[in-house]
Description:
With 264 residues, this protein is an alpha/beta fold. It has eleven helices and five strands.
Amino acid sequence: MEIPDIETPGFQFKRIALLGMSGLGKTFISQNLFKNDNWSHYSVDYEIGKLLFKNEHENLFEGFTIDNLTNLSNFLGKPGSSSKGGIPFSEYVLRQRLHCEAEKEATLNACSLIEKSPDLSKMVCDTSGSICELVNPSDKEDKLLTSLSRNFLIICLEAPDSIYQVLIDRFLAKPKPMYYEENFLHSLWQTFKTGSTDTEDKINPDDFMIFGYKALIERRKAIYDMIAKNWGIKLNFDILRSVKTAADLMEAVQSEIENKVKNQ
Length: 264
């Protein structure tokens, strides 16, 4: 796990992988680079949908776009009472596993594109907000992070404490694809059931999703901080708000790389 520098292929060829929790602007930044600066935009969430929505789920591909990932949320569903839009917890776990495998494949496929065309430039890999649940940032042999860092400059979008409630409000207004590491999911489900007077088939799915999302934010922030420390750099929310063009972004990235090298 080396400190990234301005000589790395990811920076030289303008290939970046944006990591961070849903709602921090990964897709917004990616679309700006695509529309305004002619960058290639690889959306992992969209590619997950392409992998999942086959055979019996092919109807979910209708209306599914990079700008509208609602059907991926619909596929994952929410555990709890069927009368309130929920699905059995066992089915929820099964769908989580399918999402997990599809996300790994979709992420590695982005890396394969670079490996087949090593001189490919101006490409942004817009990762899923759940990638942090699939990796171990302390493991220097981690497959996903090794592949990403070899082909892209990893940039973690840093959320200040003040934005957490905003993220929760956005989630409540427009749920986005969510994946929980399975052991963590089981722990959350048991804790929630213990604190509820409802039986499993009576649980309000939205109540559990709110409970789980709040816990997920705290968990993911810590993991993304470790990814940035060991595998890439971080850019904070205030810097991102000032980024209008690819040149702005690369200037901010270069400044952050230089600061990280200086402070190591």
